[in-house]
Amino acid sequence: MARQKWMPRFAKWHIWLGWLVGFPILMWLVTGLIMVSRPIEEVRGEHLRQPVAEQALPSETNIMVSLPEGNDRPVKSVTTAMNGGTAVTSLTYMDGTIERYDPAGALMQPIDEAAARAIVASRIVGGRNIESMTRFAASDVPFDFRRPIPVWQAKLSDGTHIYIAEQTGEIAAVRTQWWRLFDFVWGLHIMDLETREDTSHPILILFAALGVIGALIGCILMFRRRKARVVATDAS
């Protein structure tokens, strides 16, 4: 008898929870379906990147970098690698800024617009179809980039955004139209459209917990109803 009294309560709770979490559950399913509908490599625009052959440093490479007088900023790392057929030494400071030096030890200037255009044209499929070039400071980067470094943004005719790091000349990101849709859907999925990075906030945890409770109650109700039908069949 006690179990029979509990079943109507479970059924009532299940209905109320269904009304409360039904929309979030549907949203999670739809957004999840959209996000898995294409390979993640395509979302990231990897198919648009031209392959770049790796180059070994010349055996006689010996670059001495002399920092300007008065430069006492702490250095985080020093790396030397081939870049466009030239051995380039990069100094990364603790504040995240990067300086590049040529084989003679002279400071290299940041990438200008012409160099950024050339990089996009040579390393991106369809990279010659540039509609506009815009430079963004580290403190004012577009929302679809979201990294605090100065970049050049190349807008292609198909809506793709290519970001070239001003300090290094590297292609920092490829943002296709599909990526921007994926990013928006991801924000809906984690219920964070502002930063689209917080995957552990109270609202998401609450609705996820309520959804789990509703599913468990539904499983209990299905089991008990099935048992009741079996008993009724046997009695007949």
What can you tell me about this protein's structure?
- The protein has 236 residues and is of the alpha+beta class.
- The protein folds into 2 domains: 2-40 and 184-235, no CATH class; 46-175, no CATH class.
- It is built from 5 helices and 8 strands, in the order ααββββαββββαα.
- It has a 4-stranded antiparallel sheet, with no helix packed on it.
- α1 (2-36) packs antiparallel against α4 (177-189) and α1 packs across α5.
- The model has no long low-confidence stretch (mean pLDDT 86).
Topology:
Layout (H helix, E strand, L loop, with lengths): L1 H35 L3 H4 L31 E9 L2 E8 L4 E4 L5 E2 L4 H11 L6 E7 L14 E6 L4 E5 L5 E5 L1 H13 L12 H34 L1
Antiparallel strand pairs: 1-2, 2-3, 3-4, 5-6, 6-7, 7-8
Helix pairs in contact: 1-4, 1-5
Features:
single chain, 236 residues, alpha+beta, 2 domains, 4-stranded antiparallel beta sheet, 5 helices, 8 strands, 41% helix
Would you tell me the structural class of the helices and strands? alpha+beta
The radius of gyration over CA amounts to 28 Å
Report the order of strands and helices. Answer: HHEEEEHEEEEHH
Q: In this structure, how is the largest beta sheet organized?
A: 4 strands, antiparallel
SS elements, strand count: 8
Helix share, percent: 40-55%
Total helices: the number is 5
Q: Quick one: overall form?
A: elongated
Strand order of the largest sheet: 1-2-3-4
Terminal-residue CA separation: 22 Å
Mean pLDDT across all residues, rounded?
Answer: 86
Contiguous runs where pLDDT drops below 50 for at least 5 residues: none
> Domains counted in the coordinates: how many?
2
